[in-house]
Amino acid sequence: MDRRILHLDIDAFLASVEQLRDPSLYGRPVAVGTGVVASRSYEAKARGVATAMPLYEALRRCPDLVVRAGDARLCERYRQRVAKTLRQFAPVVEVCSLDDFYADLTGVPLRVQQALCDATASDGERSLRPLCEDVRAAVRAATGLSVAQGVGSTRTVARLATTRAKPGGICEVPMGHELDFLAEFAVRDLPGIGPKTAEQLAQFGVATVRELRVVDRELLRQTFGARGDEIYWRCRGLDEAPVRDTPALQSISRETSFEPACDDALQQHGLVRAMLSYLVDRAAAELRKTQRTCRVVAVRVRHVDGHEGESRRTQREPTDRTDELSLRARSLLDELLARRVLVRLVGVTLQGLAPRSAAQLGLFDEEERARDKLFAAVDAVRERHGFGSLLVGGASALLGHVPHGKHGFRLRTPSLTK
After folding, report:
1. Higher pLDDT, 111 or 179
2. Which residue segment(s) compose the domain that 260 sits in?
3. By CB atoms within 10 Å of each CB, which of 42, 85, 192, 257 scores lowest?
């Protein structure tokens, strides 16, 4: 059976989320970033704004550019919704980065298998475009986001097809047409070829994939080592790298940075403690959402002088309760704040995860069972009204210091790791 790989990319992801949050931004140039442009809308792109561009340069090129800091937590929720939607169409989905995904469509669902196995069908009849249109519509309905999709026989072909589909389109490369499709791409567009490799190839007079295919395989191997073989196969659309299902959750991390604005470290440390309480609450909520418990709590801090510290503790009994995890994390943080220096970053990681069914339930401890019911009720309220609808523990001390809304506190640079 012919192999068919789908690559999906969310169009202008961070900027699109800002437009969803504030519909008045639709049709206007929008950039997301703090210092440099992390994402920009297509309206901003048309005005010369590029990713990784300093914001001052972006504003010089586009004076009416709307700049937003972004909400990474909200973006993470949108990313999870896109992944969940894509899994309705394929059991093997690989989440590669913040805004792109791979799915192996070979043989699934049945309609795909029938289309691919019908040797008498024309290219149009065997096309997976109708399936991609279903995916696009499902993602739009679930998130409001626009996605571009590429379909090919390999990851490389599918990824490059997506670049031809942006924004919001579908590009499918039929079997047997890979060489023609890849020929006119610049070598720097091939996955795995960075600026330095492209510069080396340019010294040989190689600028396009068509020209790259003329280079001897042994020369590529001698020049680039093991990557030379990868380049040789990729430029021919023959790489066999599989789509790997995103691995099961191994840890949950939440962190954010500060821009210290006071000279009194002890005063700021109170804010750091409140922030850690909030981060633990977010991580614990994710634990319960995924039906897991943890045994290891790790807390890390980075001070303004560059000094970093981390402390962890393993508990005998696993838990998913915010109050227990907060006590453990607070104890670890107090050890790390002994230096009395302003803090630049604080974070928590929950490790040693296990399915909740494997935990000791404390059947005869009424207080413990009541606490479990309490946090189940908190999760239910937040699911309906937003995470910011309830504050737990010391996180309330952040009110008045950090912007707060329906989805919780707007953190400056929250981590997207899980």
Report:
1. 179
2. 252-409
3. 192
